[in-house]
Amino acid sequence: MSLTITVFVSLLIISLISTPSMSSLESFVFGGCSQLKYISDSPYESNVNSLLTSMVNSASFTNYNNFTVQSPSSSQDTLYGLFQCRGDLSNGDCARCVASAVSQLGTLCLDSCGGGLQLDGCFVKFDNISYFGMEDKTVVLKKCGPPIGFESDSFTRRDAVLGYLGGSDGSYKPYRVGGSGDVYGVAQCVQDLSATECRDCVSDAIGRLKTDCGPAAWGDMYLAKCYVRFSERGAHSHGGNDNNNDEEIEKTLAILIGLIAGVTLLFVFLSCLRNACERGKDGK
Ligand SMILES: *[C@@H]1O[C@H](CO)[C@@H](O)[C@H](O)[C@H]1NC(C)=O
Ligand SMILES: *[C@@H]1O[C@H](CO)[C@@H](O)[C@H](O)[C@H]1NC(C)=O
């Protein structure tokens, strides 16, 4: 009994510690599904399931991979899937992120022929139309922070950071980070792009950040195959969503702490009871 309680308490403590950091990697950024639906219990559905399972398994070994699931019966059932984790994630974090993305995608795009989902730490996509190696600079999500003025030091530093992210040192870097003072930036391509396509996509995103966001404290520009984000330290780069998230985490923490306190009390009560019983027996 007491062992079960101890294990339960430790589990709660582990989830208490790991919740905040994981939930930020797994924060929802955007998602979309194709209009077409497949028939339930069809070969298509089993191909989707096997594709998504392969992605989750593969993510514990590599930050990027692509999959083609051929169907012998019909070419319409051939599926193409890929995942891309942010370049700085460990294999463990990448696997957790992709698992979360795949499960969110399953709910969001129930029975859809295709779908894509971007979390903070990873991107997953599947469809029965091939898109591997195709550059796509469609704007999927754009968010700009409050203006800070063209004259500010931060604005100069932002330009330096974006300049670095868009520059090239000859090697292919699908993931780049840059910082200047308190301004931090990150660029990430989906690795099915070639070096040239990745650079082109990133420079397009940077151009849009500059024109669309102007002198903003932070900006997120997600194109279909790459994204660029920058932020001043302390400036929130998710606007309202993140605050809600923080509130959610606080609520969860409060509930967990309450549970732990309750369980501890129960534990203390039970051991008192046992001691009392033993004393009772001794007294006989
Ligand atoms: C994708 O699957 C849907 C539903 O099975 C089908 O209608 C569509 O033609 C397929 N597209 C391709 C390119 O095979
Ligand atoms: C797909 O993955 C294979 C290895 O798994 C790799 O050789 C190939 O270059 C990848 N294709 C694209 C378009 O990324």
Give every kind of bound small molecule, once each.
2-acetamido-2-deoxy-beta-D-glucopyranose
Largest sheet: 5 strands, antiparallel
CATH superfamily of the domain at 25-127: Gnk2 domain, C-X8-C-X2-C motif
| Sheet with most strands: strand arrangement | 1-4-5-3-2
The sequence of SSEs as H and E is HEHEEHEEEHEEHEEH
Family: Belongs to the cysteine-rich repeat secretory protein family. Plasmodesmata-located proteins (PDLD) subfamily.
Transmembrane segments: 253-273
Main location: other
Signal peptide: 1-24
Account of the protein in words:
There is one protein chain. The protein is an alpha+beta fold and 284 residues long. Among the domains are: 25-127, Killer Toxin P4, Chain A (2-Layer Sandwich), CATH 3.30.430; 139-232, Killer Toxin P4, Chain A. Helices cover 48% and strands 22% of the residues. The chain is built from six helices and ten strands, in the order H-E-H-E-E-H-E-E-E-H-E-E-H-E-E-H. The protein has helices at residues 2-25, 43-58, 91-108, 153-166, 195-213, 240-283; strands at 28-33, 64-69, 79-85, 115-119, 122-127, 139-144, 175-180, 183-189, 218-223, 226-232. The strands form two sheets. The chain has a five-stranded antiparallel β-sheet with strand order 1-4-5-3-2, covered by helices on one side. The longest helix has 44 residues, at 240-283. It starts with a helix and ends with a helix. Residues 3-22 and 239-253 have low confidence and may be disordered. One 2-acetamido-2-deoxy-beta-D-glucopyranose binds at residues 36, 38, 44, 76, 113, 128-129. Residues 65-66, 132-133, 192 line the site of one 2-acetamido-2-deoxy-beta-D-glucopyranose. It is found in: Cell junction, Plasmodesma; Cell membrane. InterPro entries: Cell2Cell_Antifungal, GNK2, GNK2_sf. Belongs to the cysteine-rich repeat secretory protein family. Plasmodesmata-located proteins (PDLD) subfamily.
